[in-house]
């Protein structure tokens, strides 16, 4: 029992007493110590109160309690009425409300009498700690509940009122009124209120609600508690605290939560009157969007051409849907999870996406969709929230993102303490420009197959796949080289010498083949084949599990012409960019889905032979290297052998997680929530890296790879590279860069800076 704000002097506490002061008590003590006028306040622990209650009046313990109460009385004045408050480390439901206007004890013997007003109020305050979720627990044999505290304050003559130290929407220094509360009273000395806010802000480094009372033109501080603010306000406040000298730039970087940044990088739903969601799925790409329901890429493109927003609704998306996904304002799928095709493409393009909506069913014949209990025809408007996974009827109001100077300033500070590069996963010139605006330091993953997803290119690719002779195959490949060369030239020109990692053709060929009967007929017509003949060819190419089948480097080995086409396109694109813009090209060719050193060595040898045949050498204007994506457990374990044949490793954590767990990332949502609820998994392993399994494989691969090749460059290019928790893990490894989708770049820059401080 001790005074944290005595009436007649500055507080002086021992180290043990300071340890006991938490919650409201901590702010009362801090403000009193700073010289701010504070309502006289004393603190008593449960252990002390139980002892005082059983002590006899006149005993040393009882006398000490009476002496503590007199610390509340200003010199020459009568004992005031008292106020009793709880003070917990964290907010806790069920704590007793403040008990005010309690009469001070008339006699010393009444000071701890629980039948009297003060003793009864203190008893009730301590009793309330036993309700709700306990904050104090038994720990290492020490009963921490004995350290719970109650505050006793002198009551103020004027009615207290609350002020916000900073605006929770703009971050501007207060005083401001609380939302939904009456206007602040007319202050006799508004400068004093500003000074109090400034002082509390410097002490707390947070948005606070202060309880104060005015006395003769002065503000008397009673209590304070932190309050939540939006990310924009937190950013502005952080910059202001650095300007005022309260924080260093490094401190500002460490105090902003990277997970909050998507709130200002994407549109959000505004207002609270949203109604009940039609359905709930997984929010796999942040932001919100409203628009008309469409069921095909062609319809999405038509809506965009007319300047109207639409939501592409599908059971699941595939490579042939990319044009429609880019045209739509948002994507809604019945299947899939955080690393599904729809989710990955949505994050690259910055579109909101809700996946895995199990209560959604599509009737393509009648162009309608059932969402929960309601049916909607094509053209009906809906709203999706890619953060929460909710789907609403109608077009709800949205707020547009505002990226102000505060975020740029903070990220510049973050870059000053970050040593790991942050690259991006993009394939198009438009996405690359967005990524550069967000601070990308290169491209860590350009998926070459994404450059085929237009109608013309799809026809050429299918012609190559189904070609019956060398002449047809060469003609189809030449057309694809021209298409890709132009794409690469644009990409190289946009990045102006920054490193670009191009992954060779990765997905199984079935992803580029017609799926529906209508697509089959269209494909047969475009290829000049009979429909039945094409159907037979497709049946012979079918795989039971394509994602573990004929894909990645296996395609390059079994179809060298595809590898030849890609290398020719890369070289042609590089030469075009150098000739047109006199820039440097820094190309990194990545071989995907390897499981052995012999595979990667075969592909590397073929690439170098093609380079030699094309007359390509390392020059100042054109530099190239060859590496591999580590996405199979065997590749991670055989990293020592593989590293001898490559210049870099890039970890594809999406597939590495899938193959390590034996879980299909698209089917996982059906049971992962149950696993997490029952404590079997701490988190979704496709969202946050599994440190003990997948993370261990990454550690082993880096260690063995560096042992065989000390100059080996290490990158992370899976979706985990945009997750703050995963980034903290990667920062502890010997990695050179991470690569994520453009809209996650600010998150990665900030999270890595915090991890490396």
From TrEMBL:
Residues 407-756 form the PEP-utilising enzyme C-terminal domain. Its cofactor is Mg(2+). InterPro entries: PEP-util_enz_mobile_dom, PEP_util_AS, PEP_util_C, PEP_util_CS, Phosphohistidine_dom_sf, Pyruvate_phosphate_dikinase, Pyrv/PenolPyrv_kinase-like_dom, Pyrv_kinase-like_dom_sf. PROSITE patterns: PEP_ENZYMES_2 (PS00742), PEP_ENZYMES_PHOS_SITE (PS00370). Residues 308-389 form the PEP-utilising enzyme mobile domain. It is an enzyme of class 2 (transferase). Its EC number is 2.7.9.1. Belongs to the PEP-utilizing enzyme family. Catalyzes the reversible phosphorylation of pyruvate and phosphate. This is Pyruvate, phosphate dikinase. It comes from Maritalea porphyrae. The lineage of its organism: Bacteria, Pseudomonadati, Pseudomonadota, Alphaproteobacteria, Hyphomicrobiales.
């Amino acid at each position: 029992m001790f005074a944290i704000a005595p009436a007649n002097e500055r507080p002086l506490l021992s180290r043990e007493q300071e340890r006991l002061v938490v919650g409201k008590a901590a702010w009362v003590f801090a403000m009193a110590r700073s010289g701010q006028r504070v309502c006289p306040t004393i603190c008593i622990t449960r252990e002390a109160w139980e002892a005082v209650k059983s002590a006899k009046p006149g005993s040393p313990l009882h006398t000490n309690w009476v002496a503590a109460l007199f610390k509340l009385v200003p010199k020459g004045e009568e004992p005031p009425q008292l106020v009793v408050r709880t003070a917990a480390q964290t907010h806790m439901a069920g704590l007793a409300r403040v008990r005010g206007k309690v009469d001070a004890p008339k006699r010393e013997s009444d000071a701890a009498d629980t039948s009297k007003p003060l003793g009864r109020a203190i008893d009730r305050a301590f009793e309330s700690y036993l309700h709700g979720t306990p904050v104090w627990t038994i720990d290492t044999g020490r009963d921490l509940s004995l350290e719970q505290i109650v505050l006793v304050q002198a009551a103020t003559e004027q009615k207290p009122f609350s002020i916000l130290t900073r605006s929770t929407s703009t971050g501007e220094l207060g005083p401001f009124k609380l939302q939904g509360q009456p206007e602040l009273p007319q202050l006799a000395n508004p400068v004093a209120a500003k000074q109090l806010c400034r002082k509390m802000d410097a002490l707390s480094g947070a948005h606070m609600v202060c309880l104060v009372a005015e006395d003769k033109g002065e503000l008397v501080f009673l209590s304070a508690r932190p309050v939540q603010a939006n990310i924009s306000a937190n950013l502005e406040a952080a910059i202001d605290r650095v300007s005022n000298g309260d924080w260093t730039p490094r401190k500002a970087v460490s105090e902003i939560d990277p997970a909050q940044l998507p709130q200002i990088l994407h549109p959000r739903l505004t207002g609270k009157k949203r109604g009940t969601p039609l359905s709930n799925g997984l929010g796999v790409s942040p932001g919100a969007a409203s628009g008309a329901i469409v069921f095909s890429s062609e319809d999405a493109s038509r809506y965009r051409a007319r300047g109207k927003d639409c939501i592409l609704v599908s059971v699941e998306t595939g490579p042939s849907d990319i044009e429609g996904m880019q045209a739509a304002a948002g994507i809604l799928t019945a299947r899939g999870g955080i690393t599904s095709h729809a989710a990955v493409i949505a994050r690259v393009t910055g579109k909101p996406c809700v996946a895995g909506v199990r209560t959604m069913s599509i009737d393509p014949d009648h162009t309608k969709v059932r969402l929960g209990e309601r049916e909607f025809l094509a053209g009906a408007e809906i709203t999706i929230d890619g953060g929460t996974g909710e789907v609403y009827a109608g077009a709800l109001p949205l707020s547009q993102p505002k990226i102000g100077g505060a975020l740029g300033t903070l990220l510049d500070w973050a870059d000053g303490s970050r040593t790991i590069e942050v690259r991006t996963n993009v394939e198009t010139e438009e996405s690359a420009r967005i990524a550069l605006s967000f601070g990308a330091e290169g491209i860590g993953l350009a998926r070459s197959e994404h450059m085929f997803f237009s109608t013309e290119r799809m026809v050429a690719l299918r012609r190559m796949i189904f070609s019956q002779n060398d002449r047809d195959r060469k003609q189809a490949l030449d057309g694809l080289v021209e298409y890709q060369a132009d794409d690469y030239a644009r990409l190289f020109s946009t990045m102006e010498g920054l490193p670009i990692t191009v992954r060779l053709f990765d997905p199984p060929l079935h992803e580029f083949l017609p799926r529906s009967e209508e697509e089959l007929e269209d494909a047969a017509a475009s290829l000049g084949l009979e429909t039945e003949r094409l159907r037979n060819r497709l049946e012979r190419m079918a795989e039971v599990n394509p994602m573990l089948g004929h894909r990645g480097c296996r395609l390059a080995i079994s179809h060298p012409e595809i590898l030849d086409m890609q290398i020719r396109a890369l070289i042609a694109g590089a030469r075009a960019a150098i000739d047109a813009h006199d820039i440097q090209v820094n190309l990194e060719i990545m071989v995907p889905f390897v499981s052995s050193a012999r595979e990667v060595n075969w592909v590397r040898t073929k690439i170098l032979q093609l380079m030699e045949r094309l007359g390509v050498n390392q020059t100042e204007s054109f530099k190239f290297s060859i590496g591999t994506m580590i996405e199979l457990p065997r590749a991670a374990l055989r990293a020592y052998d593989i590293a001898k044949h490559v210049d870099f490793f890039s970890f594809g954590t999406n597939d590495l997680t899938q193959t390590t767990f034996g879980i299909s990332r698209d089917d996982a949502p059906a049971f992962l929530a149950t696993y997490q609820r029952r404590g079997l998994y701490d988190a979704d392993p496709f969202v946050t890296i599994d440190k003990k399994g997948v993370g261990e494989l990454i550690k082993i691969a880096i260690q063995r790879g560096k042992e065989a090749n000390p100059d080996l460059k290490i990158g992370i290019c899976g979706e985990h590279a945009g997750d703050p928790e995963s980034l903290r893990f990667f920062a502890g490894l010997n990695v050179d860069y991470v690569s994520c989708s453009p809209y996650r770049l600010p998150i990665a820059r900030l999270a890595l800076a915090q991890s490396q401080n």
